[in-house]
Design brief:
The complex is a heterodimer. By secondary structure, chain A is of the alpha+beta class. Chain A is built from one helix and five strands. In chain A, strands 3-2-1-4-5 form a five-stranded antiparallel beta sheet, with no helix packed on it. The chains are: A alpha+beta, B alpha/beta. Chains A and B meet through strand 4, strand 5 and helix 1 of A and helix 1, helix 2, helix 3, helix 8 and helix 9 of B.
Chain lengths: 87, 377
């Protein structure tokens, strides 16, 4: 049940006093409640759980995580190939 | 731009990066370590991607109690079944709950015998059903951990804002930190490091965890759900264990901050308050639940409907409680895959998309499968 899916906010509006939005999940669009994300704006990525947007994606943090892991892979490739020289 | 972001997020499934992370875990592991992933969604993600089979033999993943339908006490399920059987009631629930065995039946059998049971994607859909059916009582089975509690709270807030008199919730919500205390203080405990549930932390943050980490001298790493997230969480935990440190770290920084989502926490506090709660198969954990505050007691299905006396009866064979506490594996159960299957579950861990038994059966971690693997190696 805690599996939440990331998608992009494409429209924000009010329904019956609730802040709602349309979210594009890479082709499929669904409605979600945005009441817990007062600062979210169109274009932001968010994770949705049971029709409720939980948090906005930090693209910067995502990129930094990937970069750090890529670096780890490159070091290991180099070690595998015995290519570290000139140290 | 958007497709770039989707592309970047797909990188968290990149096989080369996962492989590099796994190799690093192999490189640094020198001793036996038992790590618990708390969330059942992570258990399924680990088995689906086969990470458990790629890790060093010295690393054991112990599956935790983070499966909401699995830990919902039998008494609450029997109450739900009694309410769902009543005339004039539309009983709404997440789909996972439909096949969870009560003492004598499940929600599917109530629906099959004419009961109005409807699967909803969100409790906000249940509120809509209440609006559309003013002559019916609409009940939502409000189960879940801190990930689900905000939207459950929102449904009650919305029902009040709309002046609905025919909406109520049968509440059985639980929190992660008290369960971590219960596991770590048990004499049976063998967990040495925690992968904390990333989406629970996206709501609650992880400011509550340093106290646990310090008290039990145990590393806690906030971990996401993609294969690369899981590998990073495991890597960070093993690094700490190998160097003898016990800190709280965040391997899910793109969605989780230390303080969490304050607006969502406020919603929870507005509608719910801590209470004692029994966990199916585990027993009572003090102040581990979130029940309706007095100000919202009119939305409590337990007081709105008289279900009479509930006498619960558990399966005598099922070892779900031991599995949920990490003491046993699904394959330790004599009924696993024989008497107990997803079509005829004896316990909730075989039903849910987050239950460990369901994951083992679905992804082929059967006794035969394991012995075949051992023979081959």
């Amino acid at each position: 049940m805690c599996l939440a899916v990331p998608g992009r906010i494409v429209d924000i509006y009010d329904t019956a006093g609730m802040r709602m939005c349309k979210i594009d999940f890479g082709g499929v669009t669904r409605e979600a409640c945005l009441q817990a994300l007062p600062d979210a704006k169109v274009g932001d990525f968010t994770i949705v759980h049971a029709g409720f947007a939980l948090n906005v994606l930090s693209e910067e943090e995502a990129q930094e995580t990937l970069d750090a892991l890529r670096e780890l892979g490159e070091i290991e490739d180099a070690m595998d190939g015995g290519a570290i020289s000139g140290l | 731009m958007a497709s770039d972001t989707f592309g970047m997020l797909n990188q968290f499934r990149n096989a080369d990066l996962v492989k590099a992370g796994i190799e690093e875990i192999h490189r640094i592991t020198t001793r036996n370590w038992a790590l618990m992933e708390i969330c059942g969604g992570q258990t399924h993600a680990i088995l689906r991607s086969g990470l458990d089979e790629l890790l060093p033999e010295k690393i054991e993943l112990v599956h935790g109690p983070g499966c909401p339908v699995c830990v919902t006490p039998l008494e609450q399920i029997d109450k739900g079944l009694a309410i769902a059987s009543m005339d004039n009631v539309i009983f709404t629930t997440f789909g996972d709950m439909m096949r969870v065995p009560g003492s004598t039946q499940d929600l599917f059998s109530i629906k099959a015998s004419g009961g109005q049971v409807r699967i909803v994607y969100s409790p906000l859909d249940a509120v809509r059903i209440a609006q559309e059916n003013p002559d019916k009582q609409v009940v939502f089975f409000a189960i879940g951990f801190e990930t689900t509690v905000p939207v459950n709270a929102m449904s009650v807030i919305q029902a009040r804002a709309l002046g609905l008199k025919n909406y109520s919730v049968l509440v059985s919500q639980v929190c992660v930190p008290p369960a971590m205390h219960a596991i770590l203080s048990s004499p049976m405990n063998r967990v040495q490091g925690f992968l904390a549930a990333g989406h629970v932390c996206s709501v609650m943050g992880f400011w509550e965890y340093p106290a646990i980490s310090n008290l039990y001298r145990i590393p806690i790493v906030v971990t996401g759900f993609e294969p690369l997230d899981l590998v990073e969480g495991i890597l960070m935990t093993v690094r700490q264990l190998e160097k003898g440190s016990h800190e709280v770290e965040n391997a899910y920084r793109r969605y989780v901050t230390r303080e969490g989502n304050i607006a969502a926490q406020e919603m929870i506090k507005t509608v719910f308050e801590p209470c004692d709660r029994g966990w199916r198969g585990i027993g009572l954990i003090p102040m581990s639940g979130l029940g309706l505050r007095k100000e919202f007691s009119e939305y409590n299905a337990e007081t709105r409907f008289d279900v009479g006396e509930i006498k619960t009866k558990e399966s005598e064979i099922c070892i779900a409680g031991q599995i949920l506490q990490g003491n046993k594996k699904p394959t330790d159960c004599p009924a696993f895959g024989t008497l107990c299957t997803q079509d005829h579950p004896l316990g909730a861990t075989m039903v849910s998309s987050e239950g460990a038994c369901a994951a083992y059966l679905r992804y082929g971690r059967t006794r035969t499968g394991i012995s075949e693997k051992k023979n081959a190696s």
